[in-house]
Automatic annotation (TrEMBL):
Protein name: Unannotated protein
InterPro entries: NAD(P)-bd_dom_sf, Sc_DH/Rdtase_CS, SDR_fam
GO molecular function: oxidoreductase activity
Keyword rRNA processing: no
Pfam families: adh_short
KW Oxidoreductase (keyword) present: yes
Keyword entries, A-Z: Oxidoreductase
């Protein structure tokens, strides 16, 4: 594998779950900021379309297949990413799987799949990509988690367990990385408008909304757009050395209420 001398103005980045939503927006934002980007996802054809658009705009981008349930796929992805773009300076662990399943009703295999994608796959990617960062004494690792890690939601037991575990893992890793030159941070989104949940049955969505309303989890109808979360990731990896953003929680602004406006 060829080795490249690190250059502060050329910080290659890896983004997982880059075929849509937050991952897609993050890859585009990083490329626009001048970072070569590796886009990883199972839907590699969609990643290639995004990478082609980035290249057409003068950026540097590469699409590679990545299946976070397959350790061999993760290892191959990491090897090719480093071989093609040189040292990876930024890792954005964004890929996620969420299904509307309960703690009791979930089949063990579907519960385990969400833990594999959201937590265990993230750790495997860290295992392959972060040691070279530590050797070079520079790098940024960003974990995209969820507000459910702090405020669990019903009918999302596996997602809650995996994202809570991911935050614990990220915080432990940040402690271990202290003094190595590698910064570790969490971007924690609130309710977001992405493709996640778009395949759920309408009756199941109604059931979830009723349950979340019962538990006081539906504050308003606002939701985050992917570009807003991409801005948070870019801010985290762009802060000058000497500063580390540990956690950036991003919440949607509530729609303007005529009632509230009249009371102001």
């Amino acid at each position: 594998m060829p080795r490249f001398a690190p250059h502060p103005d050329r910080r290659a980045a890896v983004v997982t779950g880059a075929s849509s939503g937050i991952g897609r927006a993050t890859a585009v934002a990083l490329a626009a900021a001048g970072h070569p980007v590796v886009l990883g996802a199972r839907r590699v054809e969609r990643c290639e379309e995004i990478a082609a658009a980035i290249r057409a705009d003068g950026g540097e981008a590469l699409a590679l297949p990545l299946d976070l349930t397959d350790t061999e796929s993760i290892a191959a992805f990491a090897d090719v990413a480093m071989a093609k773009l040189g040292p990876i300076e930024i890792l954005v662990s964004n890929a996620g799987d969420v299904q509307p399943i309960t703690a009791v009703g979930a089949r063990p295999d579907e519960f385990a799949r969400q833990l594999q994608v959201n937590l265990l796959g993230a750790q495997a990617l860290v295992h392959y990509l972060v040691p070279p960062m530590i050797e070079r004494s520079r790098g940024d690792v960003v974990f995209v988690t969820s507000e459910v890690a702090l405020s669990p939601r019903t009918h999302m037991a596996a997602y809650v367990a995996s994202k809570s575990g991911l935050e614990g893992f990220a915080m432990a890793m940040a402690m271990e990385a202290e003094g190595t030159g590698v910064r570790v941070g969490i971007v924690r989104p609130g309710p977001s408008s992405t493709e996640q949940g778009s395949t759920w049955d309408a009756s199941k969505i109604d059931e979830l909304i009723e349950s979340w309303t019962h538990w006081g989890l539906m504050r308003h109808s606002g939701s985050l757009l992917p570009d807003g979360l991409a801005d948070a990731v870019l801010a985290m990896v762009s802060v000058p050395k000497g500063t580390r953003y540990a956690v950036l929680e991003v919440q949607p602004e509530a729609p303007v209420s005529i009632t509230q406006r009249g009371n102001s």
